[in-house]
Each structure stands twice: as C-alpha cells, then as structure tokens.
Amino acid sequence: MPLRDCRRIDLPKIKDNRGNLTFIEGGNHVPFDIKRVYYLYDVPGGSDRGAHAHKGLHQFMIAMSGSFDVVLDDGFKEQRFHLNRSYFGIYSCPMMWRYLDNFSSGAVCMVMASARYSEGDYIRDRDEFLKAVGAR
Ligand code: TYD
Q: Which residues are in the Sugar 3,4-ketoisomerase QdtA cupin domain (predicted)?
C-alpha cells in the first residue's frame, strides 16, 4: 500500500473536568478489526524500535504517555510523525518499513494490530523489503 494510505487519525475526545476520555472502535475509528494490543515502555533514551515491515498487518500507534517519532517508509519516500498526545495516532499499512525513535523518558507506545503475533508476517531485512516493493 502507498505511504499516502498511512495517516494520522484523530480520535474522539470527551472533555470533562474530571479528566478527558478517548475511545477507539475497531472498524470505525481505525480501519481494521483489532485483534491484538501491545505496548512499548521503559524504552531507554536513544533507543530505536521496530525497524521492519509487515506483509499483511495493519497497525495503529498512540503515545499513551510522553512522546516519540514514528517513521514510515514505502521504499521510495519516508514520512516522520511526532506522537505526543493520547487523542491521536498513526495508522500504518501493510508493506511499510517503519521504525520508532526519539523516545522521551517515560514514553508509552500502545499499538493496536489487526492480527495476532506471527513472525512469518515480518520482513526484517531491508533489502528484502526494497525488492518486495520494487524499489530495488
Ligand atoms: P518486535 O516486533 O521484533 O519488536 P521491535 O521491532 O520493536 O524490536 O518484537 C520483539 C520481540 O517480542 C520478538 O521476539 C517478538 C516478540 N513479540 C511477541 O511475542 N508478541 C507480540 O505481539 C510482539 C509485538 C512481539
């Protein structure tokens, strides 16, 4: 899928003096059914995570706390998104090379995914990815 299909998605925000509330419905606020949730936390400053692509997985990433950058790359062009609020996230399509960096201290990255974990869905080799998308 092309890079333009990946995008920032703003989520509903119910403002309240007692604290704000945001919700996410699979197939509604994110364009896939949510089958799995995982999160990255206690990330040491200066670390990078997630330099790989997925063959079929759709994902949605949110900064639940703190901030970090998500870089999405379709093999031809890359786009960097800064995530720093829990009421929006980045939708990442299949066949998109992606990594996360610039983590603040205490950052928590929550990821919603369209399928359960499967190592067979990963492309971890950059050259293999570039060949698969026709960029090499
Ligand atoms: P990985 O996706 O490779 O993380 P990153 O690319 O950010 O370094 O996952 C790290 C390890 O965690 C890897 O051994 C697979 C395992 N893992 C699961 O078992 N289930 C999951 O849902 C995820 C995302 C990872």
A: 5-133
User: CA torsion sign, 26 to 32 to 38 to 41?
Assistant: negative
The Cα-based distances of 91 to 16, 81, 135 in angstroms read 27, 11, 22
Whether 82 is catalytic: no
Q: Which domains does the chain have, with CATH numbers?
A: 3-132 (2.60.120.10)
pLDDT digits (tens, 9 = 90+) for 53-105: 999 999 999 999 999 999 999 999 999 999 999 999 999 999 999 999 999 99
Q: Indicate which atom in ligand 1 lies nearest the CA of residue 100.
A: 7
29: DSSP letter: T
